[in-house]
Inverse folding.
């Protein structure tokens, strides 16, 4: 078995800003695993928030032994971007070697399309209103917030897209006081969900607070080991393959979370269709699907995912799985 890692860059359609900063391109790692002349591939997005860089993740992957199984991989690498790319590449390889689709190998129903959120990046209220109006035809908009003066942005987006379902992502940018002040307005403006309002290190404050709008754990939830600390603080968990370390753990996390009474959101980093493809399997029946990474790009993989009025569709075999 041979493994190769390459760094790829995809230009964004426009500047993308969250509470931690802005970017104009998506920098990803593409992993290819070859066996018996057949190659499977996967993609990950190293994330500085979790101490990852392109170089550090590449080193993790290149440090793997020459031979291992997908089951063994789960203990060879921790949950994170490196294991994600290798795990998804191995699923793709297994499917190609077996002449089946990944969902058949995983004993899952054939996936259908899922409506996906479309993200409006953090900007001035005026610009966010313009973004919202431009995308008001979309059924689900996700707003990036996370500053102490977000009220004007919320009002502006609702004015720009009066009929759209809206979810909010603060990316750990609020304090408990700011969140408590904004919560009634989230209800008034018809916000359906708020994602990671407080820093993961300070989210204990959520235990004693009213949650008039469902609260979703993102940075606070990585894999199944995260779940025990989330009870009583969150209503929903956001499953991202770059956090779980691949499709294998993501499917197990989904089942465990549902069994413990959480609802499930499936999200993504800003990456190409290759990164989103495995996540479409996890997103089946999710309360929120947020796999809009390719919609934010100016360029994509040669065989991209299909997005239409029905949502994001499962990948073709030419792309993955």
């Amino acid at each position: 078995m041979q493994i190769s890692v390459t760094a790829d860059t995809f230009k964004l359609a426009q500047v993308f800003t969250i509470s931690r900063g802005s970017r104009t391109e998506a920098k990803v790692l593409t992993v290819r695993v070859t066996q018996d002349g057949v190659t499977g591939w996967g993609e990950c997005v190293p994330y500085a928030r979790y101490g990852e860089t392109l170089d550090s993740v590449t080193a993790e992957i290149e440090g793997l032994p020459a031979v291992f199984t997908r089951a063994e991989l789960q203990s060879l690498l921790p949950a994170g971007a490196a294991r994600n790319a290798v795990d998804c590449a191995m699923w793709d390889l297994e499917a190609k070697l077996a002449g089946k689709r990944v969902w058949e190998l995983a004993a899952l129903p054939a996936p259908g399309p899922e409506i996906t959120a479309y993200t409006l990046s953090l900007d001035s209220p005026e610009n966010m209103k313009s973004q919202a109006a431009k995308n008001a035809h979309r059924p689900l908009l996700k707003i990036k917030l996370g500053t102490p003066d977000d009220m004007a942005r919320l009002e502006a987006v609702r004015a720009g897209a009066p009929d759209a379902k809206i979810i909010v992502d603060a990316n750990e940018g609020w304090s408990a006081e700011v969140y408590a002040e904004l919560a009634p307005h989230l209800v008034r403006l018809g916000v359906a969900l708020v994602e990671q309002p407080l820093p993961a290190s300070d989210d204990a404050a959520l235990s004693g607070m009213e949650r008039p709008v469902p609260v979703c754990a993102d940075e606070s939830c990585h894999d199944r080991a995260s779940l025990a600390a989330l009870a009583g603080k969150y209503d929903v968990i956001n499953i991202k393959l770059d956090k779980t370390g691949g499709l294998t753990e993501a499917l197990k996390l989904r089942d465990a979370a549902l069994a413990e009474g959480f609802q499930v959101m499936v999200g993504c980093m800003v990456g190409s269709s290759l990164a989103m493809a495995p996540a479409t399997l996890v997103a089946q029946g999710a309360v929120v699907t947020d796999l809009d990474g390719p919609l934010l790009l100016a360029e994509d993989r040669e065989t991209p995912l299909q997005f239409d009025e029905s949502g994001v569709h499962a990948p073709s075999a030419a792309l993955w799985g």
